[in-house]
Design a protein that fits this description.
The complex is a heterodimer.
Chain A lengths: L13 E10 L2 E11 L4 E5 L6 H8 L7 E6 L2 E2 L5 H6 L2 E4 L11 H6 L11 H14 L15 H14 L4 E5 L7 H16 L3 E6 L2 H7 L2 E6 L2 E7 L5 H9 L22 E7 L12 E5 L4 E5 L6 H9 L5 E6 L2 E2 L5 H6 L2 E4 L3 H4 L7 H7 L6 E2 L4 E2 L1 H15 L14 H13 L5 E5 L7 H16 L3 E5 L3 H7 L2 E6 L2 E6 L6 H9 L1 H8 L1
Helix pairs in contact in A: 12-14, 13-14, 14-15
Chain B lengths: L2 H30 L7 H19 L2 H25 L4 H20 L13 E2 L8 H4 L3 E2 L1 H19 L1 H11 L1 H6 L4 H27 L11 H11 L4 H23 L6 H5 L1 H13 L21
Antiparallel strand pairs in B: 1-2
Helix pairs in contact in B: 1-6, 1-9, 1-10, 1-11, 2-3, 2-4, 2-9, 2-10, 3-4, 3-9, 6-7, 6-11, 10-11, 10-13, 11-13
The chains are: A alpha/beta, B mainly alpha.
């Protein structure tokens, strides 16, 4: 029998002891202890950059720790690679989804299947996928290429992948970031069911409501250290916020809405716009909407119902039939530069893929969409001093603090989103297309981003605000439309509707009902 | 143009296309694992020279072919050490290996230019044995020619129907994901280079031992580079590579036939026909998204554990 001092209580599934990890210039994890029990959902709570993801990547063997030990069922266990971690049935879904776009759903899942036979049997793999996807209502087409899936669907594939990989300890890095409200509930049901089956689940999050709706224990991290590990029943929301931020932040006061003047020319007008829906894209069908100066128009809907296509359409990434007017000028099927010159800015749903060049610095990315105004000597040089000044000013205005000389790929999801928001808002926009603006941002940054929108509205900009967070939509929008399968199925002001009505429309139940009548 | 001439072009295309196809299949494996191997030309030359020398010395062409394969795989390990272990730039590593191969192959083959070897037996293509002798002689192929299409199918099957192939493609698309799935991207890249190098060695052996039965300096004549182009041309697909190799070597043979039949066109212009066809096809097919290059092709994998 081994050295008694070296062994821990074997009822603890996994124990991390004294984990320290530094990256150049950053102490990401500072002497962290963490115990995970079977039959528990353990929330890892903390601000962006608190070290949650790093800690979990160490547990999964993706990073090596500088020091510290990991124990599995009481015995020391060396995790040198994900291969080792998978050996003790640890599985992880990364925050920046790690699916391979060029492969099919089935191939992506097969990559992580344990005991995958040397010769692939696609039919058997598909059956396995269907089995689990039915049990947990996570429906995807196994033969679809991942490149053609929306982010919400990709998240489903990631979770399926994990469930099929035979993991017993599931690490989910902000899994709800991209899910719609009803998918969220579905996920929590799945998680509870898994816990009953003896799974242990680590949920990385910075959303308070998630912690309270499913976690058993909560470990709060701040600046690479454990602040405390507590039982959910022992704490309330304010306690946790205090632990996370070391100060109480007042929740944003509901902004005062001013009456929107709808007599003038709308900033954006779409009339009878339809798209062909090439490939796996959603077909937009007879879209009519107007956004007036100083108005936030919310787009509610479950992700994958045409939101991406709608923002692509406004920006000119995809063409359409019908009419698109910006400030009264017809720009149907005109190019992106023409549209952007009219004062349209864009904050897309996946900034690393669509709004930033991964291997360029934040500063270079900042200059990228506005190079014309920084050129010197007829394009032979760029005024980097001015760019630096402008980038700093743009960040300061929003209260952001993103390092300017880091490459975009190295930023955390939240910081990346901040850098894109700062860049886009610095252009005195007249129309802002914002897709999932606050996805992946912690409470403070989300509030700052929303404030930026409100400030833009006050200065007369129109906003197309695509979101799945109904609270957010109700709070900030002057009007809302509901998108379902590429069609607008409802137009409301927040005062004349409620979450239930919108929820029904989003999930299509109301639509079916209306069709039957 | 006589029937004989046309069949002659076809026969010659099959003979010269075989080495090209083996090499293209090898490069397909490299690139599917994320490595652009520009050293192929040099690797082929070293394999061809060594294989030829061994075939002469032993008097056995089969041993020569085997040695050429092994040498091809081993030479590729230089590339592997540079681009995988040392994380060096792939283009520079490939080019350096190529020039190294120029010199080394000349040294190995120096005393063997024009030396005769035992040829590989030629087996008549089924159903052509009863044709007039002049025709029948066009369709007597060595076993490496009969083997090349089954090998292409085998590579396709390995890539798309096996666990190993799935892992290899995953490495070429996103090595981090492959690492997260419990695989070792470094080791998989070495495997791709080893097998790919053996295929290139086989192609080179066919060229020197079976087809031309000769060794001369720079005898590959750019085949290593054409193979890289053919991989793109065939959109990283082993089965499409069959058509690509045949089309390309067919163009070369056609051009040679035109020259020998006294067509009054500059031979220099005729020389460009195969490459003109390559350019045209690239223009037409372009980089359509459906069959784009492996996502992390040419990129250095830094490794997950840091």
């Amino acid at each position: 029998m081994g050295d008694i001092n070296n062994e821990l209580d074997e009822r603890i599934l996994v124990s991390m002891q004294g984990i320290t990890k530094t990256f150049p210039g950053v102490l990401a994890n500072d002497n962290i202890d963490l115990d995970i029990h079977p039959y528990e959902i353990h929330a890892l709570l903390g601000e962006n950059g608190a070290g949650k993801s790093t800690l979990m990547k160490i547990l999964y063997g993706f990073y090596g720790a500088d020091s510290g030990e990991i124990y599995y069922q009481g015995k020391p266990y060396q995790i040198r690679s994900p291969h080792d971690a998978r050996g003790i049935q640890i599985g992880m879904v990364f925050q920046d989804l790690n699916l391979i776009p060029a492969l099919s759903v089935a191939e992506n899942i097969a990559l992580f299947l344990p005991n995958l036979p040397a010769v692939l049997n696609h039919q058997q793999i598909n059956e396995q996928i269907e089995d689990v996807s039915k049990r947990y209502s996570l429906h995807v087409n196994p033969n679809a290429k991942v490149a053609n899936l929306s982010i919400g669907e990709q998240q489903k594939v990631e979770i399926l992948k994990l469930l099929l990989s035979d993991a017993k300890l599931l690490i989910l890095d902000e899994p709800t970031r991209v899910l719609a409200p009803h998918e969220l509930e579905g996920l929590f049901i799945v998680l509870n069911k898994l816990r009953e089956d003896g799974y242990a689940i680590i949920l990385i999050t910075h959303k308070m409501n998630e912690v309270f709706s499913c976690a058993d224990r909560i470990t709060v991290l701040r600046k690479g250290r454990v602040v405390n590990t507590v039982l959910r029943s022992e704490v309330n929301e304010n306690d946790l916020i205090e632990m996370m931020f070391a100060k109480r932040i007042t929740s944003v006061e509901t902004p005062e809405k001013q009456a929107v003047d709808r007599s003038g020319t709308p900033v954006l007008e779409l009339s009878s716009v339809s798209t062909t829906g090439e490939g796996d894209a959603i077909k937009l069908d007879d879209i009519n909407l107007q956004i007036f100066p100083g108005e936030i128009l919310g787009v509610a809907g479950v992700s994958g119902n045409g939101q991406k296509e709608l923002s692509d359409l406004v920006l000119g990434i995809i063409g359409s039939s019908g009419k698109k007017l910006i400030n009264g000028e017809n720009v149907t099927n005109r190019s992106i530069p023409v549209v952007r010159k009219k004062g349209v800015v864009y904050i897309p749903e996946n900034p690393l893929m669509m709004a930033a060049i991964p291997f360029m610095t934040v500063l270079e990315n900042f200059a990228l969409t506005n190079t014309a105004s920084y050129i010197r000597f007829g394009g032979l040089a760029m005024d980097w001093g001015q760019i630096h000044k402008d980038a700093l000013a743009a960040q300061e205005k929003l209260g952001f603090d993103v390092p300017l000389y880091t490459i975009a790929k190295a930023l955390s999801g939240g910081n990346l989103q901040r850098s894109v928001i700062a860049r886009e808002m610095s252009r005195q926009p007249e129309l802002i297309v914002a897709s999932y603006l606050t996805r992946g941002l912690d409470v403070q940054s989300a509030n700052a981003a929303r404030k930026a929108l409100i400030r833009a509205r006050e200065s007369g900009a129109g906003v197309l605000f695509i979101s799945e967070d109904l609270d957010e939509l109700f709070k900030y929008c002057d009007r809302m439309v509901v998108l379902y399968q590429g069609r607008i199925v409802g137009v409301f002001t927040p005062e004349e509707t409620d979450i239930y009505e919108i929820g029904h429309l989003m999930t299509g139940s109301e639509v079916l009902y209306a069709a039957e009548e | 143009m006589s029937l004989l001439a046309i069949l002659g072009v076809l026969s010659s295309a099959i003979f010269s296309g075989t080495s090209l196809l083996y090499t293209t299949l090898g490069e397909t494996l490299h690139q599917r694992a994320g490595i652009v191997n520009l050293g192929l030309e040099g690797i082929m030359l070293i394999s061809a020279a060594t294989g030829y020398r061994v075939a002469v010395e032993t008097g056995n062409p089969y041993i020569g072919i085997l040695v050429a394969m092994i040498v091809g795989g081993l030479t590729n390990m230089i590339i592997g050490f540079l681009v995988v272990t040392r994380k060096a730039n792939q283009l520079a590593s490939g080019l350096a290996t190529m020039f190294f191969g120029f010199g080394l192959s000349a040294l190995i083959g120096r005393d063997y230019v024009g030396v005769r070897i035992t040829p590989l037996p030629r087996i008549p293509f089924p159903g052509t044995a009863n044709l007039p002798l002049l025709f029948a002689s066009l369709f007597r192929f060595d076993f490496l020619i009969y083997l090349v299409i089954p090998v292409a199918v085998l590579i396709w099957w390995l890539l798309f129907r096996t666990r190993w192939g799935l892992g290899l493609r995953a490495v070429g698309e996103n090595a981090d994901t492959a690492f997260a799935s419990g695989r070792n991207p470094f080791w998989i890249k070495y495997q791709a280079l080893g097998i790919g190098g053996m295929l290139a060695g086989l192609g080179a052996a066919h060229l020197s031992i079976a087809y031309t039965m000769n060794w001369s300096q720079f005898m590959t004549g750019g085949r290593g580079f054409i193979a890289v182009a053919l991989v793109i041309f065939s959109k990283w697909h082993p089965l499409r590579a069959i058509g690509g190799a045949l089309l390309f070597s067919g163009a070369v043979a056609f051009q040679l036939m035109l020259q020998s039949s006294g067509v009054r066109v500059s031979p220099f212009l005729l020389d460009t026909i195969p490459y003109l066809i390559t350019l045209l096809v690239l223009i037409i097919w372009g980089g359509t998204r459906k069959h784009a290059a492996p996502a992390s092709l040419g990129r250095v994998y830094q490794g997950g554990q840091q």
